[in-house]
Structures are given as structure tokens and as C-alpha cells.
């Protein structure tokens, strides 16, 4: 079945460590996104990528980094510079968003800093 | 820039009662409007969307929404609530910046009482 796979589902990190969240899609979508979700704040855009080897900062990119070396993969690294990284992270993808196409989401990853 | 305001972070209805979740948007370009639903610890899935054409949009699970340009609104309704409708609902807007940035509201959690 086509879809978006995020891993791991739950991740614990010590302060000062970098962690990488995986996102893989087999929908053949060009555009991919990372959102952060905190209670009462909805979804906030961290980074997005329109095509391979290209990505743009979203509204809260500080302390995060991404890469887009393959069409199907868009990993997110949460660096030690991110001051409050504990949150639920959602990866998403779509095709031709300029036409209002639906964004499809993965199941999400919980990151907790301990 | 585009923005979304969802009125009411929590809404409670009785089973069988009307569901009304409110969403107002701001956009300098013709908007694409979406409603997504999220069940606990999962990603978001599309309920319905408006891109062009008919302003009354029907979605899955008996939900519908009406695009009212004069009121800049896109309220979500369902005539009769079911226990399985209990979830968090997000209104979203895109269309600006070539459609690559979708802006989400803060979400409304729907409770359904037996």
C-alpha cells in the first residue's frame, strides 16, 4: 500500500544530542513537509521541499536541519540548538500543491528530551 | 500572508446533536481550504476541501463545509454527531506562495457525550 512511513514512533533524547527522524514515502510525491505539533498550537511548518535537492525553511526552522537526496526520503535532524524539542513531529507529502491537492500525513513521531 | 482562526479549542455535543466547528481565514489570494481530522497519536487525514467551484463541499463521514467568501469562513458541520466523531479537527488554508505552504489552525477538540 502507498503511504508515508515515519520512524521511530517514540524517541527519547538526552540534552545536547542530535537526533534524526526518518520519513519515507512511496506515493511518488514531489513535495514533502515537516510539521511540529504542540498542544493548543496546531501544526507549525519546520521545513518543506518542493523537489529533490531543494528545501526551504518554514516558520520555525531554527534548531532543525533536513536533506532531500532522494525523492522518497526527507529526514529531519533535531539538533542540540533546538531549545525545546519535546513535541510530536509529522511528516507529510503531496503532489502539485499549487492546485490545492491534498496533503498526506505519516503517523507521527514523539520526541522527548530527558 | 495567510492565516486561520478556529473559534473554540474545545466543543462538546451530545450524540445525535448538530456538530458545528468554526473556521475563519485570511488570504490575499483565492484560498484553498481544508478540514483535517486527527485521532489520538495519529497523523491527520483529509475530511474535505474547497478549491474552486461549488461552495458547499461534502466530505467523508457525513461532514460538509460551506465556503463563504464574504464572511471569510469555512465552517464544518455534521447534522448528527456519533461517538466515533470524537477527535481533533484542523482547518487549513493554502494558495499563497504557489500553494507550497499550508497554514493550519490551532485545532478544535470535539467531545461527544452519550
Question: Quick recap of the structure?
Answer:
The complex is a heterodimer of chains A (114) and B (114). Chain A has 114 residues and is mainly beta.
What is the alpha-carbon Rg of chain A in Å?
13 Å
* Count of helical regions of chain A: 0
Question: What's the main sheet of chain B like?
Answer: 6 strands, mixed
Shape of chain A: globular
CA-to-CA gap between the ends of chain B? 41 Å
Give Rg of chain B in angstroms: 14 Å
Order of helices and strands of chain B: EEEEEEEEEEE
Shape of chain B: globular
Determine the number of helices of chain B (DSSP H or I, runs of at least 4 residues): 0
Fold blueprint:
The complex is a heterodimer of chains A (114) and B (114).
Chain A: E1 4-7, E2 10-13, E3 19-25, E4 31-37, E5 43-49, E6 56-57, E7 64-66, E8 76-78, E9 87-94, E10 104-105, E11 109-113
Parallel strand pairs in A: 2-11
Antiparallel strand pairs in A: 1-3, 3-8, 4-5, 4-9, 5-6, 7-8, 9-10, 9-11
Chain B: E1 3-7, E2 10-14, E3 19-26, E4 32-38, E5 44-50, E6 56-58, E7 64-68, E8 73-78, E9 87-94, E10 103-104, E11 108-113
Parallel strand pairs in B: 2-11
Antiparallel strand pairs in B: 1-3, 3-8, 4-5, 4-9, 6-7, 7-8, 9-10, 9-11
Amino acid at each position: 500500500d502507498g503511504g508515508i512511513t515515519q520512524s521511530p514512533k517514540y524517541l527519547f533524547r538526552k540534552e545536547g544530542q542530535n537526533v534524526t527522524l526518518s520519513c519515507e514515502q512511496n506515493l511518488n510525491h514531489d513535495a514533502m513537509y515537516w510539521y511540529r505539533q504542540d498542544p493548543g498550537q496546531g501544526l507549525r511548518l519546520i521545513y518543506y521541499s518542493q523537489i529533490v535537492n531543494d528545501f526551504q525553511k518554514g516558520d520555525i526552522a531554527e534548531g532543525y536541519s533536513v536533506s532531500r537526496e532522494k525523492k522518497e526520503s526527507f529526514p529531519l535532524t533535531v539538533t542540540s540548538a533546538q531549545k525545546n524539542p519535546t513535541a510530536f513531529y509529522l511528516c507529510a507529502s503531496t503532489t502539485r500543491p499549487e492546485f490545492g491537492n491534498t496533503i498526506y500525513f505519516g503517523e507521527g513521531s514523539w520526541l522527548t528530551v530527558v | 500572508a495567510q492565516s486561520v482562526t478556529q473559534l473554540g479549542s474545545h466543543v462538546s455535543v451530545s450524540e445525535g446533536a448538530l456538530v458545528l466547528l468554526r473556521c475563519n481565514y485570511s488570504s490575499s489570494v483565492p484560498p484553498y481550504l481544508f478540514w483535517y481530522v486527527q485521532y489520538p497519536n495519529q497523523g491527520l487525514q483529509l475530511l474535505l476541501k474547497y478549491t474552486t467551484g461549488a461552495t458547499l463541499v461534502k466530505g467523508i463521514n457525513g461532514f460538509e463545509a460551506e465556503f463563504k467568501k464574504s464572511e471569510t469562513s469555512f465552517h464544518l458541520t455534521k447534522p448528527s454527531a456519533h461517538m466515533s466523531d470524537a477527535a481533533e479537527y484542523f482547518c487549513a488554508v493554502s494558495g499563497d506562495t504557489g500553494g507550497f505552504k499550508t497554514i493550519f489552525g490551532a485545532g478544535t477538540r470535539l467531545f461527544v457525550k452519550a
